[in-house]
Every structure is written in C-alpha cells, then in structure tokens.
Amino acid sequence: MSMQSLSVLCVDDEPGLAALVGTYLERFDRTVDVTTATSAGQALAELADTEFDCIVSDYDMPGIDGLALLESVRAERPTVPFIMYTGNGSEGVASDAVSAGVTDYVQKKTGTDQYRSLARRIRNAAEGRRQEEEHTSAQDDTRRREAAERILETAPDPVRQP
Predict the structure, then answer these.
(1) At what angle do helices 15-28 and 113-154 cross, to 10 degrees?
(2) What is the model's pLDDT at position 146?
(3) Beta sheet of 32-37, edge-to-edge order
(4) What pLDDT is recorded for position 159?
(5) What secondary structure does DSSP assign to 98-143, as a single string?
(6) Euclidean distance between the first and the last CA atom of the chain, given in angstroms as a whole number
(7) Beta strands 104-107 and 54-57, pairing class
(8) Residue 64, Cβ neighbours under 10 Å: how many?
(9) pLDDT value at position 35?
(10) If 0-12 CB within 10 Å is exposed, 13-18 middle and 19+ buried, where does residue 46 land?
(11) Is the pTM of the predicted complex or chain greater than 0.85?
(12) 72: helix, coil or strand?
C-alpha cells in the first residue's frame, strides 16, 4: 500500500528550528512536503494560497501566538489537522489548545526520535481527516441517491398508456 503525499505547514518563529523540523519530517516520511513559516502572519498568508493536509505550529510566538493562529485557522478551515508542537507549553496551554480544537498537542524534546513520532502523528491526523471526508462524501452520495429514488417513486408516470 503506497502512502499519499502530504503537504505540511510548519510554523515556528525560530527560522532555524522551523527548517530543522521540516528537514526531519521529510527525512522520516518521504511523502511529506513541508512549507515553513516564521510567524503566524506568514502562515496565514501561506494558507490563503495553499491547501495543506496538516499544520504544525509552535505556541510561543511574538504577536499572534499558536492559539490565536489555531483559532484563525479553525474559522476558515475547521477540519484541517492542527498540531501544537511547543517547548514552552504547560497543562494550561494544552487545555486551552484542546478547547480551541487542536488535533494534537506535542511537547518538543531533544533528539531526533521526536521528529519520527511527530511525522507519525501528522500522518495519522491527515489520514484520519481524509477517511472522515471520504465517509461523509459516501454518506452524501447515498442521501442524494435515496432522495432521487423517492422522487421517482412518488412522481406521476409521465408516459401515458393508451
């Protein structure tokens, strides 16, 4: 089974860290294509032009923090997976993020294993969204077909027999 490619937006105000995260994500999952943004404003500009399968964002950023970015994203794209990936979080921040609709909350750690784990979480979140959308689409198709059948069953026969 081949995996579908994923486009990921990685947002971190530290350019070197955003690039490092992107490099490791692409290394651990060769089907991932990462775009980086170094501010929430830049991330919103990227989102205006591009559909992403997942967003990974730091929490502690100047100006618009990760929670405010999450709220802006949810207002425009309520189903896109959003992973809060932060080194400066707390239980309070995690609780606020969950309340705001974050898909996952991950604490930054040292070492490269964290990127392998993050890549798996991204893949799981994106595939879960795709499956949910496919299921919803199939349900919509079934509803339309059933409605059409009801209309045909109840409509008078347009062809009259002599």
Answers:
(1) 70
(2) 64
(3) 32-37, 6-11, 54-57, 82-86, 104-107
(4) 60
(5) HHHT-SEEEE--SSSHHHHHHHHHHHHHHHHHHHHHHHHHHHHHHH
(6) 59
(7) unpaired
(8) 16
(9) 96
(10) middle
(11) no
(12) helix
Q: How far is CA 52 from the centre of its chain?
A: 7
The region, left, alpha or beta by phi > 0 then psi within -120 to 50, assigned to residue 111 is: left
Six token digits for residue 57 = 């964002």
Band (1; pLDDT cuts 50, 70, 90)? very low
Q: Can you read off the two tokens belonging to residue 90?
A: 């707390």
Print the SS3 string covering 17-68. Answer: HHHHHHHHHHHHCCCEEEEEECCHHHHHHHHHHCCCCEEEECCCCCCCCHHH
